[in-house]
Design a protein that fits this description.
Number of helices: 2
Radius of gyration: 26 Å
Oligomer: single chain
Largest sheet: 5 strands, antiparallel
Number of strands: 15
């Protein structure tokens, strides 16, 4: 089969992957703290490869190598809600899951409060510790927000500015994107430190996905997909013509 057939087929498939990335960005254009993904492409076998009997001809199209996250800041939404927090500048909010001790990071500061049972330091008549219920800042999904010192943030007055921690890494490249708009750092992100961003109460960060830009990328991917299918169709017609001459 003509090599152009495979080149076109690979290109069409990869443009479908590209469309998935853009559609996810469009779906989250109104998600607080969302960071847009960008598709990164790489050439496939752009040089000749040594074969068993003869060199293999390179140039079989491209593939989507990875998706990277655009961490630049989004707009500001003034909510007036006292448990909403926003970071102006760089940094993340830290969330801890007490069931697994997993710490993840997010830019979405739409927090709420959740109860937490802790030891009161007293015992009952049978010598069992007495637990007391306290209300702490949480993300609404079972994870608690960490303070600047790395502890839970007890809520006594919702109106006051809570000591919400801002944490940062020197390198964001490669951070693993998790569900619910959270991120998990990897080794190459470096050491964790206190972030330099400014904490603002009563506001949330908007998504940095620009709808007009995302729609233009969708049109671009659709056109590239159509051209790739045209290559497949033309290649198939050439093969049909050749077979008809035999």
């Amino acid at each position: 089969m003509n090599q152009s057939f495979y080149t076109g087929a690979v290109g069409a498939h990869q443009q479908l992957q590209h469309l998935h990335v853009q559609s996810n960005n469009i779906a989250n254009v109104n998600t607080y703290g969302y960071k847009a993904e960008r598709a990164r492409f790489s050439a496939l076998m752009y040089g000749n490869v040594r074969g068993i009997e003869e060199p293999l001809t390179g140039g079989v199209g491209t593939r989507m190598l990875m998706t990277s996250t655009d961490f630049h800041g989004g707009g500001v939404a003034d909510t007036g809600r006292k448990l909403d927090y926003m970071i102006v500048g760089e940094g993340f909010f830290a969330l801890v899951d007490l069931a697994t001790n997993e710490v993840t990071f997010t830019r979405d500061g739409s927090f709420t409060k959740a109860s937490y049972q802790r030891d009161s330091g007293q015992v009952d008549e049978e010598g069992e510790p007495i637990l007391e219920e306290v209300w702490c800042l949480a993300d609404g999904s079972g994870r608690f927000v960490l303070s600047e010192e790395g502890g839970l943030i007890e809520i006594t007055d919702e109106d006051e500015m809570l000591p919400v921690g801002i944490f940062d890494y020197g390198n964001y490249n490669g951070m693993t994107r998790l569900s619910e708009n959270r991120y998990m750092p990897i080794g190459k992100n470096g050491n964790l430190w206190l972030g330099s961003g400014k904490l603002v109460q009563g506001a949330l960060e908007l998504s940095n996905a620009d709808l007009a830009d995302e729609l233009s990328k969708v049109i671009e991917a659709q056109r590239a997909y159509g051209l790739a299918l045209k290559v497949v169709q033309t290649s198939d017609e050439i093969e049909t013509t050749i077979n008809g001459l035999r």
